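To start, an entry.
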Amino acid sequence: MIPSGAPLEKEVIIANGCVVDPKVLLEEIENLKRLNKKINLKLSSTAHVIFPFHRILDGLEEKSKGEYSAGTTKRGIGPTYADKAARWGIRVFDLIHPEILKPKLERLYKIKKELINIYDPSWDIDLDSLYEEYKLYGEQLKPYVTDTAYYLNKAIDAGKRIVFEGAQGNLLSIDHGMYPFGTSSNANALGICAGTGIPPKKIGKIFGIIKAYTSRVGEGKFPTELFNNIAEKIREQGHEYGTVTGRPRRVGWIDLFNIKYGIMINGVDKIIITLLDALQGINPIKICTTYELNGEILESWPIQSEIIDKCKPIYKEFEGWEPRTQKEWSEIAKQGYEALPDTMKKYIQAIKEELKIDIALISIGPEREDTIALEENFF
């Protein structure tokens, strides 16, 4: 939950567009403290709060959706966003003010209990204990709570550099993703303004981060998905297992057709390609450039999942590259782009030409030092 800059003791912000599980957040804070890390966290007072009944509902609703299940992590994220839209959600500001929290929690608990009892008539939870638990969370989080929109705008006006870090990916976004097989927020660049309070004219460059292949968590259409030993090899070499659940991710060939759509929707300036080393030892490697539907080549990516299900991906094949140890990849990274295998450079160039966009960075390993800049001063 804490942004990735926290272990480096950078100033990090959880803005209003997030939903917050206070128990998980406090556990992460404690983990950083045990590592003797300074906590430079600011938490939006208007971020919405996840409660245990949200997690219960998440699991029950997923089960009831059948084939339309999104395959969520069942952490209560969707139901919390639903409460936000319904305008009866509880926010961090409420959490740190017990006199506000109590009546709001009583109202929300009553609603959720009636809803959960439709699925499970035996479910119940002690309201007083829940209130005391979350009141304590509020006391512990209070030092971090602030008006993050005001703080961020002041920082930008003062000339500070800010990196907006999004989780998940464009096709999981609620408005421009593969509905209903996604998340409940705009998990793309479009979510920055509404999710932080930063106006559009203050947004600088937008970098689109893509893997050298495609991966997906949960349900939904996946035209380039692989099911064979190649899939297993990519999954193992790319460590494609869910961060929260540990479940294997679905993997497939890179889909430049939907990446073009993502570049358009997000206004991407440059792209960053990661996990090129995860394709080592695979030959040939394929790139999807477009889809075919009923014998016709599509011009634009079809957002409706019912149409995507009928599409056939069109591929170009490329020669792969030999396996190397992580130490060897790290040594190549030190030497720079020209030291890459020729076949990898051809693969990278093909992606650049197909997407018609510059590549800022590539990575060939898990460490920061395994990153290669393709141009100077790309920021």
